[in-house]
Request: fold
Amino acid sequence: MLKIDVITIFPQLFDNILEYGVLKESKAKQLCEFNIHNLRDFTKARHKKVDDRPFGGGPGMVMTAQPLDDAVSFIKDQNSKRNIKNFKTILLSPQGQKLQQKMLRYFVSLENIILICGRYEGVDERAMDLFVDMEVSIGDYVLTGGEIPAMVIIDGVIRLMEGVVGKEQSLENESFEHDLLDFPQYTRPEMYKGLVVPEVLLSGNHKRIQDWRKEKSLENTKIKRPDLLNKKSCKNEQ
Ligand code: 4FV
Reply:
């Protein structure tokens, strides 16, 4: 079971994330443990302050190291009491490694992930030196906070957990699993506004269907994400 800890100044933002769909099932089946920590509970500064003005001047505020440090230490203490050793502390930030499916597969292999949600202009750099194991970015754009990026990881990780998504098989052949995009999907009715479902999918011939889907995945990837094919070919050369 993966334990997910989140450190944020807006804990209520996570109230509903496990109340819908597949994530709700994971909670019902107790397949993951979810702890939301309010950063302000760990500050030693007056008025529950967790930020300060940047040294060297400039706009905005910076998150101070002490509250983050104490929040992470609190979670690590809990881990040691529960003999949880295999964990990583992850800061969500635009400076991070770009999130990919294989990173989500790595996270689900751990016992615990600690997600730090940045706000303001970012966090004091000494946080990286002292307690951040990985910086992760969900994309090259700037958001108001790390909470939504943390939810992206939570959603992507929980659906990879054993027993969350129905037939394991559906995880096996999805986009990015083999650096390929998915094949086109169709469902009833067979004819919609004059557009028909490809005959092969109605043939019942599983070999022909599988070949068609492989071909369509490749075609889709060539058109929409040729960069993935270069990655794939580099991997094969290795
Ligand atoms: C972000 C991203 C992101 C930057 C300033 C929060 C914001 C504020 N996090 N991927 N893109 N974070 O924009 O992860 O502190």
Notes: The CA atoms of residues 42 and 67 lie 5 Å apart. The chain has a mean pLDDT of 93.
